[in-house]
Design brief:
Layout (H helix, E strand, L loop, with lengths): L1 E6 L4 H12 L10 H9 L6 H10 L5 E3 L11 E5 L9 H12 L1 H10 L3 E9 L3 E6 L4 E4 L6 E4 L2 H9 L6 E5 L9
Antiparallel strand pairs: 1-8, 2-3, 2-8, 3-4, 4-5, 5-6, 6-7
């Protein structure tokens, strides 16, 4: 489902708050994550408590955000893709390959950097979205294909602000996760 374009104003922090709210987030959100838990389980991973809490807050939010991009038939310029993606057009084997890679050697690199256990959660970002992991203490770690450094964020707001700090936008349209429409 397409959510109509709305205007955004204020500083970047308030825009990020409005983006998340328009995507479906609200204070105290706690949705059913059994689909995600099953996906992790099928891949031999039991969700950590921090992963469960993150998913309860953010699973099922609109996955494609059109900020500067106004043509909704084109690719979105911002992705909010948590495993399992459930997005039309992404093939299961590609998603499984991402999860496998992010659970294997890349996970070792992230855990060494974080100095604690982590789990992959998906891809979040503007144009070249980051691969994102969550630590057992709830910090988010992002790895970008265009830089060697791993970045750490205290929460999803900080990660999205980093992603959008160079983007000039004053409105947004979004696409929901079709497979979850009306289910969360």
């Amino acid at each position: 489902m397409i959510k109509e374009r709305i205007s955004l104003n204020g500083d970047l922090s308030s825009k990020v708050e409005k983006l998340l709210e328009y995507a479906g987030w609200y204070e105290g959100r706690k949705v059913d994550i059994s689909i995600a838990q099953q996906y992790y389980s099928e891949h031999g991973v039991i969700m950590m408590k921090s992963t469960e809490r993150f998913y309860q807050k953010y699973f099922g939010l609109c996955c494609e955000w059109y900020l500067a991009q106004t043509k909704l038939k084109w690719a979105a310029d911002f992705q909010f893709a948590l495993f399992p993606y459930l997005i039309n057009g992404i093939k299961d084997h590609l998603e499984d390959a991402y999860f496998r890679d992010m659970s294997g050697c890349e996970l070792s690199e992230i855990e060494q950097f974080a100095n604690e256990a982590c789990q992959p959660i998906g891809h979040i970002g503007y144009y070249y979205p980051a691969e994102v992991w969550i630590s057992q203490h709830g910090k988010l770690y992002a790895k970008y294909e265009y830089q060697d450094e791993i970045e750490c964020f205290s929460d999803i707001h900080a990660l999205i602000e980093r992603e959008l700090r160079q983007c000039k936008f004053d409105s947004v349209a979004m696409k929901t996760v079709k497979a979850l429409d009306g289910k969360l």
